[in-house]
Amino acid sequence: MTVLSLPETLDLKASGPLKAAFLERRGDAVEVDAGNVRRLGGLCLQVLLAAKTAWAADGKSFSIRAPSEAFVETTRLFGAEGALLSADIHGVQS
Amino acid sequence: MDELEAIKVTFFQECEELLADLEGGLLAMQDGNDDGDTVNAVFRAVHSIKGGAGAFGLEPLVRFAHVFETLLDAVRSNEVPATPDLVVTLLRASDVLADHVSSARGLGVVDEAVSAAMAAELKACTDPNAAPAPAAVVEAPVFEAAPVAAAPAEALIGADDALDDDDLGFDFQPMTITIDEQAADVAAAAGNVWTVSIRPKSDLYRKANETALLLRELARLGPIEATLDASAIPPLDMLDAEAAYATWTVRLETEEDETAIREVFEFVDGDCDLEITRGEGLSADAALAALLAGETPAAIAAPEPVVIAEAPAPVVVESAPEPVAVAPVVEAAPAPVATPVAAPAPVAAAPAAAAKTQQIDVPGPGQSVIRVDPERIDRLIDLVGELVINQAMLAQRVGEYGIAPSSNLAMGLDELEQLTREIQDSVMAIRAQPVKSVFQRMPRLVREVASMTGKQARLVMDGENTEVDKTVIERLSDPITHMLRNAIDHGLESPEERKAAGKNPEGVVKLAALHRSGRIVIEVSDDGKGINRERVHSIAIKKGLISPELQLTDEEIDNLIFLPGFSTADKISDVSGRGVGMDVVKRSVQALGGRISITSRPGQGSTFTLSLPLTLAVLDGMVVDVAGETLVVPLAAIVESLRPKPEEVRPLGPVGSVLAVRDSFVPLIDVGLTLGYREASPPPTEGVVLLVEGEDGSRAALVADAIHGQRQVVIKSLEQNYQQVDGVAAATILGDGRVALILDVDAVISLRRREPPRPVEPTLIAAE
Question: Least enclosed by CB within 10 Å: which of A41, B235, B434, B659?
Answer without folding.
Answer: B235
